Automatic annotation (TrEMBL):
SUPFAM superfamilies: Periplasmic binding protein-like II (SSF53850). Residues 89-274 form the SsuA/THI5-like domain. PROSITE patterns: PROKAR_LIPOPROTEIN (PS51257). It comes from Agathobaculum ammoniilyticum. This is ABC transporter substrate-binding protein.
Amino acid sequence: MKRILSGLVASVMALSLLAGCGQGDTALQEPEQQQTATVEAGYEDGVSIRVAALKGPTAMGLVQMIKDNEGDETHYQFDLYTSADEIVPLIGKDEVDIALIPTNLAATLYQRTEGGVQVLDVNAGNVLYAVSHDEALNTLEGLAGRTIYMTGKGTTPEWTLRYLLDKSGIEESDLTIAFKSEATEVVSALSQDAEAVGILPQPFATVALMQDQELSINFPLEDAWKTYSPNGQGIATGVTVVRKAFADEHPAAVAQFVQDHQQSVETVVSDPEAGAQLIEAYGIVKAPVAQLVLTNFNPVAAASGQEMKGWVSDYLEMLYGIAPDAVGGTLPDEGFYYLG
């Protein structure tokens, strides 16, 4: 569907959306421990949870929560970062209690810390979209015979696309994948090849339409993903993790965080205009871009419990099948999922 966007400045801050790291083994291990009882939520006196979030879709749903915490009574300390590399050492040094990071990085950290982190919720769903000058293109099968331009070589965008091509029966010889280092280079390449297709993450896909009004966003990769997902869930791009030691010591405060995050996401999604203003205010992405992304493609999520487990396990199994190192070399056991 073509979106003609005039009078807007095509400006977006550099976002680190996805990561790939780790080392290799096989299948699910036996659970060390799994939460089954429901924990009663509540703020704890003297406890201020230190929260680190990666700028981009992972943090978009957090902004109402950040604003609500700016009064006299605060329960959280928020810091936003442009790179996951800035957050990882803080978790290792116990300087952060909760972090919003890419899903595969969470799995890698679980292995590195020997079960020291757990997933609380999915905070970002699908962000990958096909864009082109061909409005008629609406399925993955339509990529055959074309040149595909994309960023993210050797990371989750590439692995996700290759997984879906394989599942769809599209041979790699049926198309050409050309990698670019920046989203702007993808847009430039598309302007020179009317038959080519770009695979871009949000918000860059939206920014691309603002730069070239003849482009269309054709379809989300999630359309094909849900066909092959064992649990029928969406793509789990980002998750929220908690240090297990902190969760064990402060279960009520952690349960309260999950509830507050859910409420924040619902508020941001229900009022994209106000949510976009907050997203810009906290330096995540410009408001015009954020509003379009929230209104038309909403990547923000807050799925917890068994729903979260279904999303994350499907996504990690896909990554493990293509690049085991991307999830830390082995799939995490049941202790990875916080179900309290």
